[in-house]
Design brief:
The protein has a single domain (2-230), classed as Rossmann fold (3-Layer(aba) Sandwich). The protein has 12 helices and 7 strands. It has helices at 2-15, 24-28, 33-43, 49-63, 69-76, 85-89, 92-100, 106-117, 130-140, 170-183, 200-204, 216-225, and strands spanning 19-22, 121-129, 144-152, 158-163, 191-194, 208-212, 228-230. Strand 2, helix 9 and strand 3 form a beta-alpha-beta unit. Helix 4 (49-63) packs antiparallel against helix 5. The longest helix has 15 residues, at 49-63. Mean pLDDT is 91; it is low at 1-15.
Length: 233
Amino acid sequence: MRRARSARAGEIMEKERVAAFFDFDKTLLDDDSCKYGIQYLWERGRLKARWLAKLLVLHALYKRDLCSEEKMVRFLLTIYRNRRLDSFAAETEEFYRRFIVPHFAPNILSRVQEHKRQGHVLVLVSGSLRYLLEYVWRDLGFDHLFCTDLEVGPGGFLTGNPKDGLVTGEKKREVALRLAREQGIDLSMSHAYGNHHSDIPLLESVGHAHVVHPTRELEKTARKRGWEMLTFR
């Protein structure tokens, strides 16, 4: 009887685990890492002016919600087409230390540390790429990393397409639901942080949603639902 009761208590405790899901760009980071990545590659002569001009047009449309996040990310991934991942990965640590570390948002970074102190499961979930985010995941002590992987084609060359899809929009909700099932996480007690209206599916999945310098559409949703709004500092 005691063993059965103890086992049931253990199951209840496991189901009551709490997670904190963090988006990366313009949430944990106070800017867009892609902007710095493009600057870094341009300085090294690895981008063409025609590609950059098209990016500027797409970015202007994206800022006006006339271009989806998925379309924007898919275009950005064309940087990698017909190149090898190791040619980028070799420079990642320098890029990370120079551009990423100085731009961690202090207010959101303190939330990461507070969740860690409370023993919450820390989850970094982003459409950004694994070879960069692994540094963030390791340095900040996240428990799980869900992000976009690059597809490798024949001869070890990158195709410029994502492997297994982009971790954006509805995919983030799927990640949260799957992790909750596998890890016994109570999403009603869990937290999520995001900045873009494409993060709404993830934010809706938890009991405590927090928005960081939100887009106009996300701000409207946050106000209607009483979600906490945060600044970078």
